[in-house]
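Q: Got a minute? One more chain.
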Amino acid sequence: MEGRLNIALGQAIVEAHREQKTPDTLRFLRFPPTALVGRHQALAQEINLDYCREHDIGVARRITGGGAIFMEPGLLGWELAFHRKTLGVKSLPELTREICEAVADGISRLGVDARFRPRNDIEIDGRKVSGTGGFFDGDTLFYQGTVLVDMDPKVMVSALHVPQAKLEKRRLDSAAQRVVTLRELMGDKTPALKDIQAALIQAFSDRFGLKMEHGVLSDEERAEADLLYRDEIGTDEFVGGIEEPPAARGDLAGRQNCPGGTITSYLRLEGPAQNRVRGALITGDFFITPPRVVYDLESRLRGVYLDDLETEVKAFFKEAEVEVLSVSPDDFIASLMDALADK
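A: Always. Here it is, folded:
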């Protein structure tokens, strides 16, 4: 399914599930060649738009956080829309571990040794075979992941701008060294997609004590997906809605690297003493629940005196119902303070 429509369908399932019109759902999905930027990432910083245009690669924005990824027909996507109570009322980090361990079990049933690597990856011999991420929307947990079955890593590397810091962190020369496909490991013994799906279904069922039944998308889910695609997720405004501010505007930029990802903050100041926040933009590959909380934080910071910035951020997170994965309010504060260090 076309990339943006695939994303819209995931959002439609979330909304229908939240309204109790859709049961707990495990959906498998596949994409034509598509570069997917994370919910809070700046588009052109993460994706090689010229290369994608030249090679007819689609570009879409996920509704989940995390980093940019590349999808093509040889890669299998999966996503869960479950009620909190289905998997137990736990925090996002706890559920991430349990879900990732279930996926690692499912992949291992295919004849390889897959293991969960915090914060949200599954690896085989230290190389990534699956990435994951998700969020809570009310009592609905939406969680997505991939299985790298077969692809050309060179295309992935060309379509994405992989941060050099990520490669240096793992002492790699290229992003292609970081990932591995089942095809590379298993050759002609690579299982068919239906067998991979069956292994994941069984692993989820065993891990969480679930009974799963095959189903089809409802007319209501499809109609809502079409609406979301037309009005939001399928639009260029949504996909390109977050961009790095040009340096010529004079924005201050700061960064904080933490176990949960990188938080980059941009501040524009106002007032005769340049001591108030005129506007803030926060980007990165972190996970935060619900995703819209980032925009609420940016709004909260407008007009705040710099002396009160740390206090306002702490108050915001204390008041908001926020769940994060390996990041904290202090990490957001550190990113903002790093921006002010250039003042």
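A: The chain has a mean pLDDT of 91.
Q: Perfect, thanks.
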